[in-house]
Specification:
The complex is a heterodimer of chains A (149) and B (115). Chain A is of the alpha+beta class. Chain A has 4 helices and 7 strands. Chain B is an alpha+beta fold and 115 residues long. In chain B, a hairpin with a 2-residue loop joins strand 2 and strand 3. Classes of the chains: A alpha+beta (149), B alpha+beta (115).
């Protein structure tokens, strides 16, 4: 198990089209299901309102990190349950979209990383070194305590 | 990923907090290592070979029990403690859940750009 998520998806559309769907705030909102107040600007907080029926009271907040045209779009966001959470005070994870031209169109790679920034995960770090199951993790605990009796 | 699902994930995370806290201690990690190796053990057995008192071990076991990492079973007149793997398996599912939410969002993106 790792502290990051990685997804690769092939899209039958040109890189320019995918870039627009990711970075035009209206198009982003369409597939992400959020109504954003304005365009994405690197270094600035993106705010908006969730559009999913029944959850319109929940606010969206993210900090746009990088916008390298047709290559990389990234933002950080928080994982707080509090609808009024202030992103400048919350631990965040980093979401990155990388685009690559391929014969079929675009290869999109999504990563979400930094789960270890979220306080609870820090303690689990020792359990996450390997990708194995619980038995594997138990071996880690055993060797850990053997080294530090 | 909709915020709705995101909130659901955050809810999961909160539920995991006691497990992380319970395991963030070397004495308790050592207790878990002993218990996961085999049979349920009594407090006396778990105290043996430890520099801690029976009271201290009992206190640590209660923390593990409250987090659902161990449970106690009654054998005759004695309480024994046994390892309970479910909470850890739950944590492992956490990233799988986030991952699944991204799959759904990316599938909506795919429909948008290919449509």
């Amino acid at each position: 198990m790792d502290n990051r998520i990685e997804k690769r998806i092939e899209l039958k559309a040109p890189v320019s089209r995918v870039w627009r769907a990711l970075t035009d705030h209206r198009e982003f909102g369409e597939w992400f299901r959020v109504k954003l107040d304005g365009p994405f600007v690197p270094g600035e907080i993106s705010r908006g309102q969730i559009t999913y029926p029944g959850y319109e009271h929940i606010k969206w907040q993210a900090v746009v990190q990088k916008m390298e045209p047709e290559r990389l779009f990234s933002f950080t966001w928080h994982h707080s349950l509090d609808p009024d959470a202030d992103i400048s005070k919350e631990p965040t994870t980093l979401v990155e979209f990388r685009l690559e031209k391929i014969e079929a169109g675009t290869l999109l790679t999504l990563t979400e990383s930094g789960f270890e920034n979220l306080p609870d995960d820090l303690r689990l770090e020792a359990f996450r070194r390997n990708d194995g199951g619980w038995n594997e993790q138990m071996k880690n605990i055993e060797s850990y305590v053997a080294q530090k009796p | 990923m909709s915020r709705r699902s995101h909130s659901r994930i955050s809810g999961k995370r909160q539920a995991h907090a006691p497990v992380f806290a319970a395991l963030g201690d070397e004495t308790r990690l050592a207790l878990v290592a002993k218990l996961c190796a085999g049979q349920p053990r009594s407090i006396s057995q778990l105290t043996e070979g430890s520099h801690l008192t029976r009271q201290a071990i009992t206190k640590h076991l209660r923390v593990l029990q409250n987090a659902g990492v161990v449970h106690s079973v009654r054998i005759g007149r004695e309480s024994r403690f046994a390892f309970n793997p479910e909470p850890m398996e739950e944590i492992k599912k956490y990233l799988d859940l986030v991952s699944e939410q991204w799959d759904q969002a990316l599938s909506r993106l795919k429909s948008l750009v290919e449509g």
